[in-house]
Fold this sequence. Notes:
This protein is an alpha+beta fold. The protein is 43% helix and 13% strand.
Amino acid sequence: MKYVGRRKPYTERGISRIRCYRCGRPSSQQWQVCANGNRFLGVCNECDIRMNEMVLEFMKFPEHIACALMRKYREELER
Length: 79
């Protein structure tokens, strides 16, 4: 099985040099996926937000808590 991505986390400078694995826009965040051999993949803010929303829904967070968490996370990304 061939894994995709990096074994070590990207640096701030490094993540800015790669494209989002999902959509191809410039990356600003990174995800480590266990099923992908714990490799790090770069993602843009929009894809990162979508993945976080999907995880909160999958984990069955109550909607009011998930909304509050995502509102706070979006504010952090805007800084």
